[in-house]
Amino acid sequence: MSKKRELILAFESSCDETSVAVIEDGHRILSNIIATQIKSHQRFGGVVPEVASRHHVEQITFCTQAALEEAGVTYTDLTAVAVTYGPGLVGALLIGVTAAKAIAYAHHLPLIPINHMAGHIYAARFVKPLEYPLLALLVSGGHTELVLMAAAGEFEIIGDTRDDAAGEAYDKIGRVLGVPYPAGKEIDRLAHLGQDTFDFPRAMLKEENLDFSFSGLKSAFINTVHHADQIGETLNRENLAASFQASVVEVLTEKTMRAARQLDVHQLVVAGGVAANQGLREELAEAIKASGLDLDLIVPPLRLCGDNGAMIGAAAHIELKKETFANLTLNAVPGLDFPYRA
Amino acid sequence: MKLLAMDTSNQAVSVALLDDQQILGEMTVNIRQTHSQTLLPMVDQLLKQTQTAIETIDRFVVAEGPGSYTGLRIAVTTAKSFAWTLNKPLVGISSLALLAANIVDTTALIVPLFDARRANVFTGVYQWQSGSLQTVVADQHVSIETLLARLQLLAEPVYFVGNDVAHFKEELQAALGSNAHFVGANHNLPHASVLGKLGLLAEPVADIHRFGPVYLRKTEAEVNWAKTHDERGTESYVEQV
Ligand SMILES: [Zn+2]
């Protein structure tokens, strides 16, 4: 008799994407349905939590049906159900959590609670097997963290932002430049057309720690643009974007390389929405080459950098082995975080 | 026909299992609570106590709103997921109707209401006509002032129902005098068994996927946006990518 396939039905609804995936053995994507609400929130210039929650309710069973159909599996084939329970918007998280609980309960399947940020890191598992200890740079609209993984499913924050997340800074300066939400992709594009002429500050670069700060950069950027407005001067948008991005990327790269040198790691995973940034990918690759370190840079393909159910299914494969199961009282934990290194 | 009914539209959580008109079990918890932590364990306990397998449920009934937005979504998402995943019919019933149906043996007007803050209420007007509960005025979000003005015009006895009635008792009495009637604690509380009975007679929803809460209010962001934008011609704000 052949070994029964390990199939996980995974839910993700922490922000403005409703996504459901079917993942085999933690690394084969049988389906990964993503319904994005970007068009809706673009009306408001950012994600409106109540609107996001309402969309999730409308999408959740649609996406689940599509995921099962595309994977060609039924409930009796499934091994477990997994769901993001934090961090994220509480109302949005609750829809995935509630639907996953009901579906797991109805079909007597174990339910695996997954930390969204662990999911982002495990998106790298679709590129190649992970080797521990491993260093991860997590960059998204809500997070900018350096995470050390001593073993599978073990996470420790070794560096964090003191104020804004990198993605948040992109969205805020995007507003100043008149770039529609979400701004990251367009600023990345503009940056590639310009030069770093403004020499914005590189926050905390001289400090020994592995922490980040982006609010000073954001303020410097906004002040520069406002000052120019006042004296009736028009600044070059490409150069502004390039200068902003150069500062963000340099700080992220420097601190990440500092962490890599301190630790005995051979893999660097870059994860989260900002991992899609071309400037960051290029600079990290160059820094690794220049450093001579035996460090393998793993960046998930674009579709897996944003929020998606597949990454939750990949992380759930590890938790299934550890038998981390939730009971029927599972709730959303909007402020869920990894522990900090003692 | 076995029905599982659930309501999380306000503070209370109520679940009930019915076999047609027969109540097999009911559980109501009325404390400040996180509905996502309470609802499914209550459903589980009810099914276990009544020795019922969830696969044998023939119809799911849910209070669809109005009510607290986050609260509503818990029962609606649970019922919707159950009905869809088990391939069973789903029925949505007004959260106000299920309170109105607590008051029987009268043909007077019944006005259930929820406090919607800033001197507004979610309310409707109901009446029993030949043994069935009829909607006289559709559920709506309205100022308490407007509601009172309309009820004064009717000049008929009115039964007010719901735990939030207490917030407005003085105003209601001042406006309607002896036409304002109030009911006891048990009648002010939602009972999922009542919901189940209403759900037995109602038409199931045509498309479970599209089913969602009846909020009766757009979000503030959407209201503000609509002031300066034309929504017509917009196909969809959500797309599969
Ligand atoms: Zn994310």
From TrEMBL, chain A:
Biological processes, Gene Ontology terms: tRNA threonylcarbamoyladenosine modification
Swiss-Prot/TrEMBL keywords: Acyltransferase, Cytoplasm, Iron, Metal-binding, Transferase, tRNA processing
InterPro entries, alphabetized: ATPase_NBD, Gcp-like_dom, KAE1/TsaD, Peptidase_M22_CS, TsaD
Pfam families given in the database record: TsaD
Subcellular location(s) of the protein: Cytoplasm
Substrates-to-products reaction catalysed: L-threonylcarbamoyladenylate + adenosine(37) in tRNA = N(6)-L-threonylcarbamoyladenosine(37) in tRNA + AMP + H(+)
Cofactor notes: Binds 1 Fe(2+) ion per subunit.
CDD domains associated with the record: ASKHA_NBD_TsaD_bac
GO terms under cellular component: cytoplasm
Binding site for Fe cation: H116, H120, D307
Binding-site list for substrate: L138, V139, S140, G141, G142, D171, G184, D188, N277
GO molecular function, one term: tRNA N(6)-L-threonylcarbamoyladenine synthase activity
The Gcp-like domain, residue ranges: 29-313
E.C. code: 2.3.1.234
Requisite cofactors: Fe(2+)
Entry's family note: Belongs to the KAE1 / TsaD family.
Role of this protein: Required for the formation of a threonylcarbamoyl group on adenosine at position 37 (t(6)A37) in tRNAs that read codons beginning with adenine. Is involved in the transfer of the threonylcarbamoyl moiety of threonylcarbamoyl-AMP (TC-AMP) to the N6 group of A37, together with TsaE and TsaB. TsaD likely plays a direct catalytic role in this reaction.
PANTHER family, sorted: TRNA N6-ADENOSINE THREONYLCARBAMOYLTRANSFERASE, TRNA N6-ADENOSINE THREONYLCARBAMOYLTRANSFERASE, MITOCHONDRIAL
NCBIfam families: gcp_kae1, T6A_TsaD_YgjD
Protein name: tRNA N6-adenosine threonylcarbamoyltransferase
TrEMBL record, chain B:
Highest taxon listed in the record's lineage: Bacteria
Pfam family, one: TsaD
Xref: InterPro entries: ATPase_NBD (IPR043129), Gcp-like_dom (IPR000905), T6A_TsaB (IPR022496)
GO CC annotations, alphabetized: cytosol
Record protein name field: Sialoglycoprotein metallo-endopeptidase
PANTHER family: TRNA N6-ADENOSINE THREONYLCARBAMOYLTRANSFERASE, TRNA THREONYLCARBAMOYLADENOSINE BIOSYNTHESIS PROTEIN TSAB
Gene3D superfamilies: 3.30.420.40
Domain Gcp-like: residue ranges: 33-225
A single GO BP: tRNA threonylcarbamoyladenosine modification
Residue ranges of the TM segments: none
Lineage of the species this protein comes from: Bacteria, Bacillati, Bacillota, Bacilli, Lactobacillales
